[in-house]
Every structure is written in C-alpha cells, then in structure tokens.
Amino acid sequence: MRAVLQRVSQAEVKVNGIVKGKINKGILVLAAVEKEDSEKEIDFLVRKTAELRIFEDGNGKMNFSLLDIGGEIMLISQFTLAARVKKGRRPSFDKAEDPEKAKEILGKAVEKWKKMGIKVEQGIFGARMEISLLNYGPVTIILDRKYGGKNDR
C-alpha cells in the first residue's frame, strides 16, 4: 500500500460538480492498494495516519498527532500511486489491486479510523474526482510500509 498524506486546513472532493466530502483541519490521504497487501498494511496506514506527530504545538514544533488535535481525514482512492515507471514511457499499473478488493480493503481502514473516533470523509471509488485542498505547511508525507525500516510497526 502506498499513501500520500497531506496536512490540510481544509479539503473537499467533488464528483460531477457535487460536493461528496469535506473536512476541516486534518489529513488528506491519497491511497493505492497493491496486490499482496494484507491486514498489516491496513493497520500500518491507519496507525501512522492517526499517530504521526505532524501538527504544531504552541512553539511551532510538530508534536501533535491527528488524534491529539481532533483532526479529520479525507480518504481518496488513487490507484495511480501504484504506478511503476522503470521501463518505457507509459506507467504500468500491474501492481495495483483489483478495484473491488481495493475498495474493500480501504473500507476496513475507514472502519478502523472511525472506531478511533476520527471523522472520515471519502470520494467515490473509481469516479473522476476534483479534489481541492489547502495544504497547511506544506507538510506532505509518503507512506509505504515496504520501504520503511524493519522495526516499523
């Protein structure tokens, strides 16, 4: 699983000009489920997104997590993050999970965040979406458990 986290002061997703989701202060998560992803990748994404200390304290230091500030999540499925561009000029999406399975896996992440008390908004899986955001910082983090350290939990 690959994900791009962007710290935002607000984010919104529209489909066909209609707002389908909107958050205030929190994290916009662009996520791609890859073949062979398991419950471990879901747990990694959920835990890291909720617990990463990327929000500033009163001294301007990144000491607070999404949970600490009562922040919100906007989850957007983005299979193009699974692209491989090593060969040729056209990206390969062979590593991207089947759409129905990917939808199910991301649904599990949403359930887990909600159990943590986090408000989660989403786009529409597989739809052409327009996403607007105010990236606060900017702070952008790439999550990929496969490339983390061996002690990543």
What is the rounded distance between the termini? Answer: 14 Å
Shape: globular
Helix content: 10-25%
List unreliable stretches of 5+ residues: none
**What is the number of strand segments?**
8
Mean pLDDT: 93
Tally of DSSP helical segments? 3
- Which architecture per CATH? 3-Layer(bba) Sandwich
Q: What number of domains? A: 1
Instruction: Characterize the main sheet.
Output: 6 strands, mixed
N-to-C order of helices and strands = EEEHEEHEHEE
Determine the structural class based on helices, strands and strand pairing: alpha/beta
Give me the CATH fold name. D-tyrosyl-trna(Tyr) Deacylase, Chain: A
CATH class: Alpha Beta
What does this structure look like?
This protein has a single domain, classed as D-tyrosyl-tRNA(Tyr) deacylase (D-tyrosyl-trna(Tyr) Deacylase, Chain: A, 3-Layer(bba) Sandwich). Helix content is 22%, strand content 37%. The chain has three helices and eight strands. It has helices at residues 39-51, 66-69, 99-115, and strands at residues 2-15, 18-23, 26-32, 55-56, 62-64, 72-77, 120-122, 130-144. The strands form two sheets. Strands 1, 2, 3, 6, 7 and 8 form a six-stranded mixed beta sheet that branches. A hairpin with a 5-residue loop joins strand 4 (55-56) and strand 5 (62-64). The relative contact order is 0.29. The mean pLDDT is 93.
Could you give a quick summary of the protein structure above?
The protein is α/β, with parallel strands linked by helices and 153 residues long. It has one domain (2-145): D-tyrosyl-tRNA(Tyr) deacylase (D-tyrosyl-trna(Tyr) Deacylase, Chain: A, 3-Layer(bba) Sandwich), CATH 3.50.80.10.
